[in-house]
Amino acid sequence: MQEIKCPNCGKVFQVDESGYAQIMQQVRDKEFEKELERREQEIRQKKEDDLKIERMEQEKIHSAALARKDSALAEIKQEVERLKAQLQNAQTEKKLAVTEAVQKKDQMLSDKEVEIEKLMSALDLQKKEGELRENNLVERHRDELKLREEEIERLKDFKARQSTKMVGESLEQHCLTQFNGIRMTAFPNAYFEKDNDAKTGSKGDFIFRESVGGTEFISIMFEMKNEMDTTATKHKNEDFFKELDKDRKEKKCEYAVLVSLLESDNELYNNGIVDVSYRYPKMFVVRPQFFIPIISLLRNAALNSLEYRKKFEEIRNQQLDLYTFEENLAQFKDGFAYSFNQASARFEEAIKGIDDTISKLTKIRENLVKSENHLNTANNKLENVSIKKLTKNAPSVQAMFEKTKTEQ
Q1: Separation between Cα atoms, residue 398 and residue 408, nearest integer Å
Q2: Which is nearest to 229 in space by CA: 284, 187, 171, 179?
């Protein structure tokens, strides 16, 4: 805001920048007009003064010329021409001065017009860009709405032309066809087949598995549900989560995916891949158009952890070898203890028989023979014990002993 004091009443009032600019423009225009008028008056006065001087000179020259009329006629004509030239120059200077003043004014106006034109052009450009963005957004939403309406109409027509059983089977066939279409290019080593194992009482629709070098790094249990698959108690996606999680665990799959056409008006499921791990671990719900993307997404994520899976498998095998060694050692200890206990029992029984009665010497002899046999068996087992036998079926432990032997 700018403060302006009235020169007449002395009152101070405030105006905004646009109003202040308008007042300054008016003042500049009036000052310019005053300056232009003053210059015109100066030029006019100068011309009048020059004309008066010229008249006086002309009168003097004319008086002198009358005396020397015949001799100075040529000079008069030349002087007249000179005066005409001066007059022309004066008029030219006036025109130039006026033209210069007009040009300055026009230049000032032109600069403002150019600035205004630039601002208007920028404003028009912003307006056009906004309209273009708005039109693009409207067009995109219109296309999406059209595609969604076409998909709804197609599904309605699809359901109207098929029975309840065929609708469910067609959704499964649709997913199978989609996968087979890119199987050899995207998943050449993958397993993707129907789940036909119903030994546990239930089964999913499809199982996806993929391995590298014998190490399985991804497995997915798929369940396909159509609107025709609903019952009196199950008509929402979440009604099938528990059974799908059960099938995933029984078939030892890492992930579970529900490919569903249920709840067609639910925006949550219509927006794309929905993670429902907050209900059941590693479970997702997708529409049929996201069937291939969810496989690619989970597979690529699992590939990143393949190296860690291999290391885990190696450590687990080493632990299994160590467990086998410990088990073999425990079996040997149990066998030796059994043989020793049997020998001890027979020997004690024989001593007792000797102490009790001489008549039982035959029986004692037999027991002693048996005791000797058991002791020999135990001794043979002890002599036959070797690192090689103990580490049988445990290659990693055998390698550890070989390494220790080499270092010694």
Answers
A1: 16
A2: 171
pLDDT band at 235 (very low <50, low <70, confident <90, very high): confident
Can you give the three-state secondary structure of the chain, one letter per residue?
CEEEECCCCCCEEEECHHHHHHHHHHHHHHHHHHHHHHHHHHHHHHHHHHHHHHHHHHHHHHHHHHHCHHHHHHHHHHHHHHHHHHHHHHHHHHHHHHHHHHHHHHHHHHHHHHHHHHHHHHHHHHHHHHHHHHHHHHHHHHHHHHHHHHHHHHHHHHHHHCCHHHHHHHHHHHHHHHHHHHHHHHCCCCEEEECCCCCCCCCCCEEEEEEECCEEEEEEEEEEECHHHCCCCCCCHHHHHHHHHHHHHHCCCCEEEEEECCCCCCHHHHCCCEECCCCCCCEEEECHHHHHHHHHHHHHHHHHCHHHHHHHHHHHHHHHHHHHHHHHHHHHHHHHHHHHHHHHHHHHHHHHHHHHCHHHHHHHHHHHHHHHHHHHHHHHHHHCCCHHHHCCCCHHHHHHHHHHHHHC
Cα distances (Å, whole numbers) of residue 231 to 168, 228, 235: 13, 8, 6
With tokens 């860690």, the residue in question is: 308
Provide the pLDDT for residue 43: 82
Rg (CA), the chain: 56
Direct distance between the N- and C-terminal alpha carbons of the chain, in angstroms, rounded to an integer: 97
> Which residue's structure tokens are 């004014």?
105
pTM: 0.40
CA pair distance 153, 146, nearest whole angstrom: 10
pLDDT over 70 (residue 1) = no
Pairing assessment for the beta strands 206-212 and 215-225 based on DSSP bridges: antiparallel
pLDDT category of residue 323 using cuts at 50, 70 and 90: low
